Amino acid sequence: MLDSITTQTTTNQPVSEGVLALIELRAYAYDVLRRTFASEPSQEYLELMKNTIVQFPFASESEDILKGIKAVDSSLNRSSGLSRQDVDGLQWDYTRLFIGPDQLAAPPWESAYANEDKLLFQKETLEVRGAYLKHLFLPAQFQQEADDHIGLELDFMYQLCLELYEKAKSGESFQEVLEDQQSFLQQHLLKWVPRFGRDIINNSTTDFYKGMASILMGYLSLDLGAVEELLTVNSAN
After folding, report:
1. Which UniProt keywords apply (predicted)?
2. Is residue 154 within 8 Å of residue 134, measured between CB atoms?
């Protein structure tokens, strides 16, 4: 990802455009993913995805991302426009997978994958909350929705990308933000999302969510490598 990037090493001097571009692409990817899994899809969101999913970054570097893009694109572009029936079908699939009322096929909380009884608000939730509070990230539905919901965890990574970009652009040290992203990926997202993603693929009735699950799993795995590369570049300075 960082091929041919030359960084500037003087204190308080911005890093190279290549590094900033990589951070922007990471923020874009997390923005797409957080919007996908945080709430049921609106007509406007689906129209946007219909026209932009093929632009999801790093597809050439991940078979899972490329496969997911093809599935989502096929799902949304079967006809010239998205009908009300199409939107209703995707909203129902989201509800059935992640909300209920029946037993959830793919519970969207980290703690549900950490214990056999799939209990929520366990120690994993408190650990995630601690990571949020360090960066003053307070979910809008604090104490109403478990902090370890997939949409919130992805939103947290997105917010850290924005913080990272501002620090890098202004020449401030961004080592700690990168280390926190690395830790959050290793200790949280990558520990449970592979199982979560497989549950979606095995139980979804739409190619859209099967594809987005594939993109999610592929991207998180790839992003850990991106963070490690950025840490290497930063520490070399």
Report:
1. Chaperone
2. no
pTM score, two decimals? 0.90
Residue 92 to residue 103: CA distance in whole angstroms: 14
Identify the pLDDT of residue 146.
Answer: 85
Is residue 12 domain-resident? no
| pLDDT of res. 162 | 96
Q: Hey, what's the torsion of the CAs at 49, 50, 54, 58, to 10 degrees? A: 20
Between vectors from CA 125 to CA 122 and to CA 128, what angle results, nearest 5°? Answer: 150
Q: Which residues contact 180 (CB under 8 A, 6 or more apart)?
A: 131, 134, 135, 160
What residues in the chain have per-residue pLDDT under 70? 1-14, 117-121, 139-144, 235-237
H/E segment holding residue 74: helix 63-76
